[in-house]
Amino acid sequence: MDIIRVEGGHAIEGRVCVSGAKNSALKLMAATLLAPGKTTLENVPNISDVHVMGKVLKRMGAVIEVVDEHTLIIDTSAVDSWEAPYELVAKMRASTAVMGPLLGRFGCAKIAMPGGCNLGARKIDMHILGLEALGVEFDTDHGYIHATAPQGLEGTSVTLEFASVGATENLIMASVKARGTTVIDNAAREPEIVDLANMLNEMGARITGAGTPVVTIEGVDELHPVTHRVVGDRIEAGTFIVAAALMAGPAGVEVVGFNPHHLGMVIKKFETMGIQIERIDNGVRVFRCEQFAPVDIQTLPFPGFPTDMQAQVMVLSALAQGNSIITENIFENRFMFASELVRMGAEIRVEGHHAMIHGVDGFSGAQVTSPDLRGGAALVIAGLIADGYTEVSAIHHIYRGYERFVEKLSNLGASIECVALPDPIDD
Ligand SMILES: CC(=O)N[C@H]1[C@@H](OP(=O)(O)OP(=O)(O)OC[C@H]2O[C@@H](n3ccc(=O)[nH]c3=O)[C@H](O)[C@@H]2O)O[C@H](CO)[C@@H](O)[C@@H]1O
Ligand SMILES: C=C(OP(=O)(O)O)C(=O)O
């Protein structure tokens, strides 16, 4: 059982390079199923979710060559199974992203039903409704969804009830080889969707409008393998920006390897809180903020404020001069982090999907538990400014999405280490 131990109060300085985006890499890996042959993905983050997606693809018969830490060659020529098994889907919900490409290439897929997770119910009804419109028939038994398209997929118009990232991606991947034209209305606009559409277009797909609410896909017969570089992780970048705003030394911290436009709303809100953020080549330089102004933030689909930055901004607002309010609109259960931050001295009251935060003068280091990926990272960041030691457990959540998190913070000068604790049974 490993924990991350941080001693608060050490300034951070220098440059940190973010990895490729988890939320893009996973979908790009799934999309390789559509192009038999060897696709090379560069800038792939070395995180546990990517390892799980690798296992999903290998179970289907894909061959994956690890060229170096961030480069994978995925050969999907010999794929002969169309199943995403429960033990892998249970580890990572994004495994459901293989449904669209499997349907696109083979006309069938068997996917373990993902069920809820600690963020909420996380249904996939919109994926299913959209795919049904394209001609897919669904059946469920023994915890699995069986999807088949006996007549092949037929392009159509689909209007999503909500701009779901996963549904948009599955529908794009299912329809690239469908007969005719598919139009997805109220599509999600996240940069990772644009990255996916870019790679599919390089493979020979005909997708227009990715990054806007209307995506049009003209079906093609074949896709071919390509070499593609995963877009930089805007959420990892946002997490380091928060760390820098709290603890940067006089020269600030450079956060590079991502496109600041992908963090437009986050940077705007951070600037209204008083954080000084300079645009530099391939990233930003962030200076320490001595007094945070309170904020009113609501999470929304892109280009709104991302839910994946909600815990991190809560750390800043918990130290602001006054009262802040954060409204979570995407996931019904994403405030578990708040009660952990309260253990460090924060004053937060949660009512439904609103969190009311009364700024305090400082945090005091404590033993806390990562409730999820972003909450875990945010607790580590809070530990950087806390008085004394903070010990964060359940850090497997953090390693789902942050590559070398401890090492990157340590390289910036943080006093942080990963400590292996004895198994409780040995105590
Ligand atoms: C691997 C990945 O890319 N994960 C991201 C993706 O998750 P994911 O693709 O799961 O997020 P969605 O945008 O689909 O979900 C948003 C909301 O819609 C609901 N919903 C979604 C689909 C559906 O068929 N029915 C339904 O009710 C979900 O329960 C959730 O409450 O986008 C989220 C929102 O930006 C991010 O927080 C996640 O980091
Ligand atoms: C919620 C997240 O991811 P996932 O959809 O993979 O659970 C996240 O990246 O913060």
TrEMBL record:
CDD domains: UdpNAET. The modification 2-(S-cysteinyl)pyruvic acid O-phosphothioketal is found at C117. Its EC number is 2.5.1.7. It catalyses: phosphoenolpyruvate + UDP-N-acetyl-alpha-D-glucosamine = UDP-N-acetyl-3-O-(1-carboxyvinyl)-alpha-D-glucosamine + phosphate. One of its GO terms (cellular component) is cytoplasm. UDP-N-acetyl-alpha-D-glucosamine binds at R93, D308, I330. Phosphoenolpyruvate binds at K22, N23. GO terms for biological process: cell division; cell wall organization; peptidoglycan biosynthetic process; regulation of cell shape; UDP-N-acetylgalactosamine biosynthetic process. HAMAP family: MurA. This is UDP-N-acetylglucosamine 1-carboxyvinyltransferase.
